[in-house]
Amino acid sequence: MRVTEGSIEFAVEDARDGASQGRGEGVFYNPTQELNRDVTVAVLRAYREREPRAETYLDAMTASGVRACRAASEGWDVTALDTDPDAVSLARENADRNGLAVDVIERDANVHMHDSTTDVIDLDPFGTPIPFADAAFANARDLVCVTATDTAPLCGAHFESGVRSYGAVARNTDYHPEMGLRVLLSALVRTAARYDTAARPICSHVSRHYARTYLELDGRATEADACLDELGYVHHCEDCLTREAEWGLIAHPPDDCPACGGNRVVTAGPLWLGAIRDREFVAAVREGVDDGMGEAARARRMLDRLATELDEPTHYDQHRLCKEWTRSAPAMDEFLADLRAAGFEASRAHYHGTAFKTDASVEEIRDATA
Ligand SMILES: C[S@@+](CC[C@H](N)C(=O)[O-])C[C@H]1O[C@@H](n2cnc3c(N)ncnc32)[C@H](O)[C@@H]1O
C-alpha cells in the first residue's frame, strides 16, 4: 500500500497498529510512529540552525526507508542501513520513487558505525537501543537520536530485564513513563561517558509505547563528568507517594519514609535527574513543525508542554492523588492555579493529561488544593 508522510510518498508492506514491538512478517512500518518521525524532521531542521556544520545523517535501522527519505528531503546527506534484504530493496525503491539520493546499504548497524563517523546517528531498533549505543556514541560527531520501545523493562514492570539492559534499578510507580525515560537517559549518558563524551538530552518525550530522546555530544571529559554529576536516585514511598531525589552515584535510602513514617520506601536508580530537554531548542523544534505534517497538531501540543514542564525529576498523577485522598479531581488548570496561589511552582507534564509537576510535597499539594 502507498502512504504519505510529510512530502514523501512511499510503499509499505505492513501498516499495522504498533502496540507491539512490531516484529513479524514483511518490512516493518508503524503508522503510529508518525509523530516520532514528524518530530525527528522538526529536530533536524532546528539542529541545522544550531550546528550548521552538521550534514550527514545515518538512519541505522531503516526498514521501509521512510525516516531516511524524510531526512534526505530536508537536504541531509543520508545513509540508511538494514540487515533485512527485503527492507533494503523497499527502502531503495522508496528513495528512487521520491527522487532522493539515499545510500541504502544491507549491513549490520554496529559494524557500520564502528568503521565510519556520522554527524547525526538515529537508532530506531525493535525494543532496547542499548546493543547499538556503544557504537553510536563512539562514532557520532554531534547528535544521537534514540527510540526505545521496551517500556516494561524501562519502567520497572519487568524488573530483571530492566536491570540487565540498562544497568539500573527501575521501579514501577505512578510516574512510570518518566521513570522509563530517566532510566534510558541514565544508561545512555553512562555509555557515552565511557568514550569521554558528554551526551546531554536536548529534546526527549514519551509518547504512546515508546521513549524518544535526542542527545547532543561534547567530546570533553570534563563535560562527561558534568553529565555524570546529574545522575542519582529517587526514594519513593509506596504508602504516601512521597518521593525524594538524591544526586550522586551512591544511594543513601532512608529506613522509613520521612513524611509518613511508613517502611515501604523503594529506591530507583541510577537515574538521569537533570533536564530532559533544552527549552530554547524545544522552542526551535516547535517552529520546525509544519502544517504538512500528519501529526502537526499533536507535535505542537506535546512540544508546548515539554517547553514549559518543570525540571523536577518525577511527575504526579492528579487522579491517583485525588483517589488516595478520596476527593474528586478538579479541572487541571484550577488545580495548578491553587498550587501557584499557595506559593509553589506547578506545570503540566507532557506524559499524559493528568500528569503534573510541582516543587510541593504530597502533603503540601493536598493542603494547597483542598
Ligand atoms: C523498528 S524497525 C525501524 C523502523 C524505521 N526506522 C521507521 O521509522 O519506520 C527496526 C529495523 O531494524 C532492522 N534491524 C534489526 N537489527 C539490525 C541491525 N543489527 N542492523 C541494522 N538493522 C537492523 C530490522 O530489520 C528492522 O527493519
UniProtKB/TrEMBL annotation:
Chain residues that bind S-adenosyl-L-methionine: R37, R67, D82, D108, A109
InterPro entries in the cross-refs: SAM-dependent_MTases_sf, Trm1, TRM1_arc_bac, tRNA_met_Trm1_C
Keyword terms of this UniProt record: Metal-binding, Methyltransferase, RNA-binding, S-adenosyl-L-methionine, Transferase, tRNA processing, tRNA-binding, Zinc
Gene3D superfamilies on file: N2,N2-dimethylguanosine tRNA methyltransferase, C-terminal domain, Vaccinia Virus protein VP39
Binding, Zn(2+): C237, C240, C257, C260
Catalytic activity, EC: 2.1.1.216
Class of this enzyme: transferase
Domain of life: Archaea
Swiss-Prot/TrEMBL GO biological process terms: tRNA N2-guanine methylation
GO molecular function: metal ion binding; tRNA (guanine(26)-N2)-dimethyltransferase activity; tRNA binding
Catalytic activity: guanosine(26) in tRNA + 2 S-adenosyl-L-methionine = N(2)-dimethylguanosine(26) in tRNA + 2 S-adenosyl-L-homocysteine + 2 H(+)
PANTHER family in UniProt: N 2 ,N 2 -DIMETHYLGUANOSINE TRNA METHYLTRANSFERASE (PTHR10631), TRNA (GUANINE(26)-N(2))-DIMETHYLTRANSFERASE (PTHR10631:SF3)
Record's function text: Dimethylates a single guanine residue at position 26 of a number of tRNAs using S-adenosyl-L-methionine as donor of the methyl groups.
Family named by the database record: Belongs to the class I-like SAM-binding methyltransferase superfamily. Trm1 family.
HAMAP family associated with the record: tRNA_dimethyltr_TRM1
The name this protein goes by in its record: tRNA (guanine(26)-N(2))-dimethyltransferase
